[in-house]
Amino acid sequence: MVPSICEVTYTCQQIVRTSDDKQDNGSEYITCADVTFDGTYDSSTDGNSVVTDGKLTFTATSDDYTNDVRPPGTYTVTILGTATESSETQSATFEMTLTDVCNPPTTLTAPGYEDQSYVLTLTGQSYTPTDFVADPAWCPFTTTFEITDLDPNTLPSAVTKGTSLTWDFSYDQDLAPVSPTAQTQTVTVTATAVTAKTDFNAGALNVEKVTSDDFELSFVNPCLSEQYATLTATTQADNTLTDSYSGTSLTFTHTPFTVVPDICPLTITCKSITGPSTDVLLCTDYELDAEGVLNFSFDTAVYNAGELTPGEYTFTYKVSTGSSDAALNQDFSFTLTLVDPCATATVSQPTFTAQEYTITDETKVMTFSSDFTSAFSVDPSFCSTDLTMASEPATIDAKLTFDSDAQTLTVSQFSDSLDLSGATSTDYSLTFTYNVNSPYSDTPV
């Protein structure tokens, strides 16, 4: 202003966005009413004793940004100067730029996920971490996630996206996540901060800020702890067997125990076999098959070997989930009673009739099976036997030949003496003893 002593006052004339197709009327977003401008140069001060002459003050809040009240961009401010005495005016402009603080935000901080562990089959298991944090906090961001597969990839995922920030864990199909090889699943979450305000600034570039975080989900086998699994024994049907070395196939069928969760595999192993004979029946020879069945037999060869003593034998088996916890290892047993077949054998014997021999007669052979009702016999026939003869008086023995195997009695012809008959005749008593023997007894049974 010339001369310089003339007083001039200044006012905000208008504020318009620069090169913005969203600007309708030139003052839609920021107007002079939104700024504080001290246009009088009178050395006035603010509360901090700072001279405010010519000072223009403008404040934009986070709500102004979020709600598009005062979006980022360049604004042209026009200041009008007026000479007090002549009312002559003249204007000048300057540009005011509101920076998009979310393009990109100062920081985008990951929450710091923690690795998780999940016990298979448990329900209601989840993980809720904190969220990513942008600075400034009002800057928007989006998230995407990836979850690695189990092997094989046909298995369902044990982790799924829940509501909000929660991750849900669930798997009850089998033990594949822990056996035969321990597996893990990794959840990776990627946050991308992208400003939504570039459409207010023609040609502005969208600058992304990307941050990722992840956590690993490992798995716990529920079958290895009584905290998560239960094993309930069941009564074994037909757990008492009896046999007499018949050679007939004996069958024991295990009644399965109940295990929860039912994905736990149970192993059955022979624990011990006890009875009259030790170290004869070995567990390795009497394991149940995959169906829980044991087929076995004992025949006459076993009996006659004399090694497997008749009596009661107890076969004990252990059922286990694979855990060392006592509650997840339980026993069952069945008994086998071996009966000595020869101890209860049935003996058939001939009915003898009185026989007469005249001295000088020809040799006389008497066969039990034909000359009497039958021969001595035993059932079962494999029982060992012995047959003996005793005469009374024994003086006749020299003239008698007894074949115990053929069961024949022979009176040899003689004519050299009448001593055995006396003056007329003499009666002799012949006693036959038929013993049935057992390889497990020192005396006839």
How would you describe the overall organization of this protein?
There is one protein chain. Helix content is 3%, strand content 38%. By secondary structure, the protein is mainly beta. It has 4 domains: 91 residues, no CATH class; 114 residues, Immunoglobulins (Immunoglobulin-like); 109 residues, Immunoglobulin-like; 92 residues, no CATH class.
At a glance:
By secondary structure, this protein is mainly beta. The chain is built from three helices and 29 strands.
Features:
Immunoglobulin-like, rod-shaped, four-stranded mixed beta sheet, about 450 residues, single chain, mainly beta, 3 helices
List the helices and strands and how they pair.
Elements: E1 8-17, E2 35-37, E3 56-58, H1 62-66, E4 73-83, E5 89-98, E6 107-109, E7 116-119, E8 125-127, E9 133-135, E10 141-147, E11 159-161, E12 167-169, E13 184-193, E14 209-220, E15 230-232, E16 240-243, E17 250-253, E18 258-260, E19 267-274, E20 293-296, H2 300-305, E21 311-320, E22 329-338, E23 346-348, E24 364-367, H3 368-371, E25 377-379, E26 384-392, E27 400-403, E28 408-411, E29 429-437
Parallel strand pairs: 7-14, 16-22
Antiparallel strand pairs: 1-4, 2-3, 4-5, 6-9, 8-12, 10-13, 11-12, 13-14, 15-18, 17-20, 19-21, 21-22, 23-25, 24-28, 26-29, 27-28
CATH architecture assignment of the largest domain: Sandwich
Low-confidence residue ranges: none
- Which structural class do you get from the secondary structure elements? mainly beta
Helix proportion of residues, in percent? under 10%
- Strand segment count: 29
Number of domains: 4
Q: Count of helices? A: 3
Gyration radius, in Å: 56 Å
- Sheet bearing the most strands, described? 4 strands, mixed
CATH topology of the largest domain: Immunoglobulin-like
So, the CATH homologous superfamily of the largest domain? Immunoglobulins
Give the termini distance in whole angstroms: 148 Å
